[in-house]
Specification:
alpha/beta; Aspartate Aminotransferase, domain 1
Length: 381
């Protein structure tokens, strides 16, 4: 699904010396490389504060801790996403409220958010799924009307841009009150282990979060807030700082691969391809509203699981993200949920399939992948 070795070989002349610098300095935790990466990422995003941490799941949990959410507070998020989003809500004894998603971009449904708000609602967590921004303008308007926090789950969309109705643009993760991201190796900006970060423009919130990530300490052995141990190590920061200047090029390469996929599948009646959301149904040339962390097809009247098996037999990687809705997961079952409220999610888990998507895809690989899929589907029609 990703070609980390191919990507590394192109940047090893930068990555290797950066790692060696850490090894020679012995500053493995909170060293100069961490601070350098933090500053460079702040500049790239145009955000006041980046607080690195150990992984993306920690980032989301720490963001919620920093906001002071209390047990029993309700947090609205999407049913169609990875479990980490709802996992941290439950870990903090908050009440997850899962809602349906949009059929076109798979992101949280704005109307469903409105219907789910109660007097106990305190936050909304939009997930920028598969690399595409949720409808942040509408979500922020809802949050302002109801005095709610917005926590962007930006684990899959770093580098994406959101375009407001007036044409103004902002990087994903810089629009809500706070955001989290993951630097898992397969992400658009990935390290060579685990890593994550929290973003915010709120000075006071940033100060609180900086204490939380380091055992609640601002001065050594003085614990001012309840904290955790979640720090990005210097070697991972060195890798990320070496890769950050390439992020826009990486995302452009993903967009170009997506364009070639789309062209191959164009007008097929049983295949719906992903697209940008800036006013047309094609991949955007003028912005980065979708950075294709995953390239996900929606299939109609196709045996998705049989196709996946066929691809595996041809040694073509594929993935189903996600096969089970969160509201049906054993850990998150809740008698409040009504299946009628999850029509889109229940449809998507039966129809979606994700194809290889990374910076090293070439034309020969894309042609082999697409022709294999088309031959399979057409042979069954």
């Amino acid at each position: 699904m990703v070609d980390l070795k191919g990507q590394y070989n192109k940047i090893k002349d930068v990555v290797d010396p950066s790692i060696m610098e850490v090894l020679e300095s012995n500053a493995y935790i909170n060293g100069p490389k961490v601070h350098q990466f933090q500053k460079n990422l702040e500049d790239y995003l145009g955000v006041k504060h980046v607080i690195p941490c150990a992984n993306g799941t920690d980032a989301l949990q720490i963001a919620m801790m920093g906001l002071g959410l209390k047990p029993g507070d309700e947090v609205i998020t999407a049913d169609f996403t990875f479990a980490a989003t709802v996992e941290v809500i439950a870990l903090l004894n908050l009440t997850p409220v899962l809602v349906d998603v949009d059929l076109v971009d798979f992101n949280i449904d704005v109307d469903a958010i409105k219907k789910a708000i109660t007097p106990k609602t305190k936050a909304i967590v939009p997930v920028h799924l598969f690399g595409q921004c949720a409808n942040m303008e509408a979500i922020m308007a809802i949050a302002e009307e109801h005095d709610l926090f917005v926590i962007e789950d930006n684990a899959q969309a770093i580098g994406a841009s959101y375009t407001y109705s007036d044409g103004k643009k902002a990087k994903s993760g810089t629009i809500g009150h706070v955001a989290s991201t993951s630097f898992f190796p397969s992400k658009n900006l990935g390290c060579y282990g685990d890593g994550g970060a929290i973003f915010t423009n709120d000075d006071d919130l940033a100060h609180t979060i900086r204490g939380i990530v380091n055992h609640g300490m601002y001065v050594r052995y003085h614990h001012d807030v309840v904290g955790v141990n979640s720090r990005l190590d210097s070697i991972q920061a060195a890798v990320l700082d070496a890769k950050l200047p390439n992020l826009d090029a990486y995302n452009k390469a993903r967009q170009e691969a997506a364009r070639k996929y789309n062209n191959a599948f164009e007008n097929h009646p049983q295949i719906t391809t992903p697209s940008g959301t800036c006013g047309d149904n094609s991949i955007c040339d003028k912005c980065d509203c979708h950075v294709y962390h995953q390239y996900t097809l929606k299939l109609t009247n196709v045996d998705r699981d049989a196709l996946a098996q066929h691809l595996n037999e041809k040694q073509i990687p594929c993935g189903v993200y996600y096969p089970i809705p969160l509201h049906r997961q054993k850990a998150y079952l809740d008698e409040r949920y009504n299946e009628a409220d999850f029509k889109v999610t229940n449809q998507l888990v039966q129809e979606v399939i994700s194809l290889p998507m990374h910076t090293e895809l070439d034309d020969e690989q894309i042609e082999f992948i697409t022709s294999t899929i088309l031959n399979f589907i057409n042979s069954k029609s």
